[in-house]
């Protein structure tokens, strides 16, 4: 069996996810249970669209609860790992040049971004290629279609 995936999270992101978990496990779970009970009392479950929709919603909520519990249980919470100045590391906003186009993204977990910024995992082909690269360095990675893509690291600064 493989080791659990570990994610780096800021304290703010961990608090936000913990609050979401509390909301899902408390009021939202109770609300969906009431919806299911109400729909069940309406009779024949085979043709009861409200019942099936509520059960589907319950499945989504329970899946998100499991995801959040796993993430919070296995997360590294706090400041990102320190990297040398000018070296791409987790929790950094990175600007790269790919064939003349500039791409800005956060390297790490999408859970630490509060919105408005693209996020690439350090395990993605692009993320793995730039992790540890220095500003000004060019690296290559293999795209899912098998094509080699050259990337120049233009900037790396701590996400805040």
Provide an overview of this structure.
The chain is of the alpha/beta class and 160 residues long. The chain is built from three helices and seven strands. It has a five-stranded mixed β-sheet with strand order 5-4-3-7-6. Strand 3 and strand 4 (101-107) form a beta hairpin. The two termini are 35 Å apart. The mean pLDDT is 84.
**How much helicity do the residues have?**
25-40%
Unreliable stretches covering 5 or more consecutive residues: none
Question: Biggest sheet: strands side by side, in what order?
Answer: 5-4-3-7-6
Give the CATH level 1 class of the largest domain.
Mainly Alpha
Major sheet, described briefly?
A: 5 strands, mixed
* Cα radius of gyration in angstroms: 21 Å
Shape: elongated
Q: Could you state the order of secondary-structure elements as H and E?
A: EHHEEEEHEE
The CATH architecture of the largest domain can be given as Orthogonal Bundle
In short:
This protein is of the alpha/beta class.
Please supply descriptive tags for the structure shown above.
single chain; 160 residues; alpha/beta; Helix Hairpins; Chitinase A, domain 3; 2 domains; two-stranded parallel sheet; 39% helix
């Amino acid at each position: 069996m493989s080791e659990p995936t570990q994610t780096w999270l800021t304290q703010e992101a961990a608090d936000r996810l913990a609050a979401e978990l509390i909301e899902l496990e408390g009021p939202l779970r109770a609300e969906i249970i009431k919806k299911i009970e109400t729909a069940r009392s309406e009779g024949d479950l085979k043709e009861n669209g409200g019942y099936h929709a509520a059960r589907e919603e319950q499945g989504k909520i329970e899946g998100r609860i499991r995801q959040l519990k796993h993430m919070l249980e296995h997360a590294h919470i706090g400041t990102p790992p320190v990297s040398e100045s000018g070296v791409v590391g987790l929790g950094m906003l990175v600007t790269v040049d790919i064939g003349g186009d500039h791409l800005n993204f956060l390297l790490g977990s999408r859970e630490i971004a509060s919105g408005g910024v693209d996020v690439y995992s350090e395990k993605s082909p692009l993320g793995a290629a730039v992790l540890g690269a220095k500003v000004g360095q060019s690296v290559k990675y293999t795209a899912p279609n098998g094509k080699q893509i050259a990337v120049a690291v233009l900037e790396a600064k701590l996400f805040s």
